[in-house]
Amino acid sequence: MCALYTVAVLSLLSAAAAAPVPCEELVKPLVLDNVDKILGKWILIAGTADDPNNVDVLRNIDSAWLQFSLASHNDTAIFTQGVRLGKECIYSSAKTTIKNNKFTINDTIVSTGVLLRADPDYLLMSYSNTFGQITFQFLYLLGKKADLSVSELELYKRQVKCLSLHPPVLMDKEKELCPKKREPSQIKELKGEKEGQESY
Q1: Which element (helix H / strand E) includes 83?
Q2: What is the pLDDT of residues 126-153, one digit of tens each?
Q3: Theoretical Cys-Cys bridge with 66: which of 81, 86, 102, 127, CB 3.0 to 4.6 Å?
Q4: How far is CA 171 from CA 48, 57, 146, 147, in A?
Q5: For residue 78, with 0-12 CB atoms within 10 Å meaning exposed, 13-18 middle and 19 or more buried, which class applies?
Q6: CA torsion sign, 65 to 68 to 71 to 73?
Q7: What pLDDT shows up at residue 30?
Q8: Which of the four pLDDT bands, split at 50, 70 and 90, describes residue 182?
Q9: Where are the beta strands (DSSP E) in 20-75?
């Protein structure tokens, strides 16, 4: 009888341990207590959206990266990205305000986003773009490397489902990334060095 009771208890504990994490926890915004956690370059691994046309746009992207760097103010960062479409690289840069765990980019369009639950080597960005009265939702998974662990992929798929988004588009990690775009000051400096070398 005691043995049967022990088996029953172990079965209940096993079932409890295997219980899936509820959606409200999976899509709960993370507390960003230190902006240093997001600084640096991140590679786009997967992405999806609530609009099928935006998902099609993602399918046409060969590779992409984004980078956060500190600006002059503590609550402001520079958001830079490089997107490869075939042989062409498209770059963009904007200031983003980080307050109350939320990213806000107020440029041609208004973009707001938060970070969701992810393994330490990844960033999961849930954000929306607003055009007038229309808002589109996106969910991007980024990593320090292009590799994606099985556990993170499964977690990401569940989060996509919780947010009622389309099946994610996985980037081809073999595709070449755009090189880092040189700042105008760097280009000027290199040009000066070249001219100096030619004068000898």
Answers
A1: strand 76-85
A2: 989 988 889 999 999 999 998 888 989 9
A3: 81
A4: 11, 12, 8, 10
A5: middle
A6: positive
A7: 86
A8: low
A9: 40-49, 63-70
